[in-house]
Amino acid sequence: MKKITNYIKNHPKFTTAWIIVLVSTFLMLYFNIDAKIIAVISILMAWFTNAFIGIGTFISLIPVIGPIIVNIFSIPFFWLMNGVGYFSSAYAIKKGKQRELLKHRLINIVLLIGIIIGYILGHLFPV
After folding, report:
1. Dihedrals φ, ψ of 34, to 5°?
2. 108 contacts 100 by C-beta, under 8 angstroms
3. Are residues 9 and 38 in the same domain?
4. Taking Cα atoms as reference points, which of 16, 19, 38 lies closest to residue 28?
5. How far is Cα 46 from Cα 18, in angstroms, rounded to an integer?
6. Would you say 18 and 55 are in contact if contact means Cβ atoms under 8 Å apart?
7. Most buried of 12, 41, 125, 126 (most Cβ within 10 A)?
8. Looking at residue 106, what is its pLDDT?
9. Residues 24 and 2 in one domain
10. Is residue 118 within 8 Å of 87, Cβ to Cβ?
């Protein structure tokens, strides 16, 4: 428990980021904004404020099982994104839409490369 309180005290940016994301999400729900818009805005806010990194670090503080949970959520994400690319490619080939196939694969590759570049930059310039 002491590790968790020390983490919260030593990293106020992540705590503040999650509070901002949660409060803004509840406010948007209160004002009956479309759920898709709320989801996109919440994900973008959490991404720009590095709140996902903070929650991953917070989860990894759990002894023994924390780092395993973080690995389970991070590594298979790349497999999942690559699999989605293959399935969307198969669907586009079946429908005979080569342009859409190219778009699907390009978006998939750009997303994965962007995540890798973000990961590297996040470690070069820590928050």
Report:
1. -55, 140
2. no
3. yes
4. 38
5. 7
6. yes
7. 41
8. 80
9. yes
10. no
